[in-house]
Amino acid sequence: MSDDISNKVINIFQRHKRGEHFHFDVEEGGELIISPDGFNYVSIKHDSNATAEESTLRDTADIKHYIIKMVEAHHENGSIRMNNYYVPGERLEEFLRSLPQRPGKVLEIQQFIPDNMA
């Protein structure tokens, strides 16, 4: 189910980027929200028939972990370092707020559920 939602969201963003005119009702597949801060998003109504309730979704978010790969260039000696941060789901927002103080640029974010929690 998650892959279906991701594909819908990507399709909406791609169609918007190409300048295609489209409209999706939230119930049908998602609505593109043009955010004043420049971080546009797609809003999809959660299926009330789904088995996951809000508390379950929040619990799942907390048990996920993330590897956040950042590239750090040292111009003085021409070297590049790859910093791989291991971030527990319950601390993801805290880590994201700390990004301006960290050296380098985010290159990739991977999420996973640890084997002992799946």
Order of helices and strands: HEEHEEHE
- Helical region count? 3
Q: What's the overall average pLDDT, rounded?
A: 79
Radius of gyration over C-alpha positions, nearest whole angstrom: 18 Å
Summarize the model shown.
The chain has 118 residues and is an alpha+beta fold. The protein has helices at 2-17, 54-63, 92-98; strands at residues 31-33, 41-43, 65-74, 79-88, 105-112.
Topology:
Blueprint: H1 2-17, E1 31-33, E2 41-43, H2 54-63, E3 65-74, E4 79-88, H3 92-98, E5 105-112
Antiparallel strand pairs: 1-2, 3-4, 3-5
Detailed description of the structure:
It is a single chain. This protein folds into 2 domains: 2-48, no CATH class; 58-117. 28% of the residues lie in helices and 29% in strands. The protein is built from 3 helices and 5 strands; from the N terminus they run αββαββαβ. The strands form 2 sheets. A 3-stranded antiparallel beta sheet has the order 4-3-5. Strands 1-2 form a two-stranded antiparallel ribbon. A hairpin with a 7-residue loop joins strand 1 (31-33) and strand 2. The longest helix has 16 residues, at 2-17. The radius of gyration is 18 Å and the shape is globular.
